[in-house]
Amino acid sequence: MNKVFPDAKAALSDVLQDGMTLMSGGFGLCGTPQKLIEAVRDLGAKGLTVVSNNAGVDEVALGILLGSRQIRKMISSYVGENKLFAELYLAGELELEFNPQGTLAERIRAGGSGIPAFFTRTGVGTVVAEGKELREFDGETYVMERGLTADISLVHAYIGDTEGNLVYRKTARNFNPIMAMASKVTVAEVEQLVEPGEIDPDAIHTPGIFVQRIVHVPNAAKPIEKRTTRAKAAA
User: How confident is the model at residue 234 (pLDDT cuts 50, 70, 90)?
Assistant: First the structure.
């Protein structure tokens, strides 16, 4: 089975449909599947539900799909860096399901592990728990959260082989690995594409069994979300 596709559009063209649920990896702008997101825009799928820790920034990462009005609903943890997101939400043009960050990560991990629901203390007594089942364990109140799955996961890896085994680099490892497990079809863009056996088995973060399609993206753009500098010291 050849998992390698010539480009991002080719990898998505026969599986992406209107109304689907997508997971998009990355943390801030680190490890976001930029080329795959651009392909979603170009293919024109509408009414999408997107699961992602954040929504990128204006015109970068998922900000691209917000700009093209292709996202109907976001399931996220942090969206404060995107002005367009706020405008669309306040205008009633975008639905939002907010999650505490750890809860979002665990919902995705649970979905990928075949766990339909779990109980957590996070969010008890807040709007996060409204309408959800509460249960007592050892004298403490817990709220039930459902596992999350998707139709397609879009992930970005530093190294991948042609069998789909993936290695992530640093902060890009925060959400990409669990999202790769939690969908029917996982499409990975990789910066370095190598042959099977060239990755140390102990270094693999996502086994190839979870990855159906691969796109080689050398020289991937790596935008900086917030650039912090200091004045040069006086000579």
Answer: confident
